[in-house]
Amino acid sequence: MSERHIHMAGSVVERHIIRGSEANDRDVFEYALLRVVPRAERGECINAGVLLYCRAKAYVGARTHLDEARLLALDPRADAAGIRAALGAVERVCGGGEAAGQAAGEDAGRRFRWLVAPRSTVVRPGPVHTGLTADPAAETERLLDLLVR
Asked: Can you tell me the distance from the alpha carbon of 92 to that of 99, in angstroms, rounded to the nearest whole number?
């Protein structure tokens, strides 16, 4: 499918529109970084994980990585074990099932929306961004490597 647009100068520009069902093997996804803010009053943070949601695949996943040396550079008294536990809880909610606790019965989209809701805790989500992917799990890993490690 294509559209033709005529600009004021009289030139014709053609724009191609690809719909999800037309020869496109990639689906829209949303993602947010998980940030660790050890001292809220300073506003400093490090990226410690990625949350990714792909509605078309009913996928929600999280991958985390805490760089303890960077964390302790921001706050030598930071509770690394507690932060790791909070990051692990996010991964369990994404995984669903009994390990997800109260979120176990929710669909992938509701779990993602709950996880990206703003909060004033040491581990908090950043803004939500979008992209296209053929493999949401591989994309989660790719974003972890690109933005966190």
From this structure: 6
Sequence-ordered list of residues with C-beta below 8 angstroms from that of 96, at least 6 positions apart, any chain: 60, 103, 104, 108, 111
Tell me the two tokens of residue 4.
Answer: 């033709």
Q: Which of 21, 49, 24, 51 is nearest to 137 (CA)?
A: 51
pLDDT in tens, 26-71: 999 999 999 999 998 898 999 999 999 999 999 999 999 999 999 9
**β-strand partners of 51:** 32, 62
Q: What is the 3-state secondary structure (H, E, C) of 23-65?
A: CCCCEEEEEEEEEECCCCCCCCCEEEEEEEEEHHHCEEEEEEC
Measured in degrees and rounded to the nearest 5, phi and psi for residue 119 equal: -150, 155
CA distance 49 to 32: 9
pTM of the model: 0.78
Q: Nearest 5 degrees, angle CA 80-CA 126-CA 27? A: 120
C-alpha–C-alpha distance, residues 140 and 94, integer Å: 12
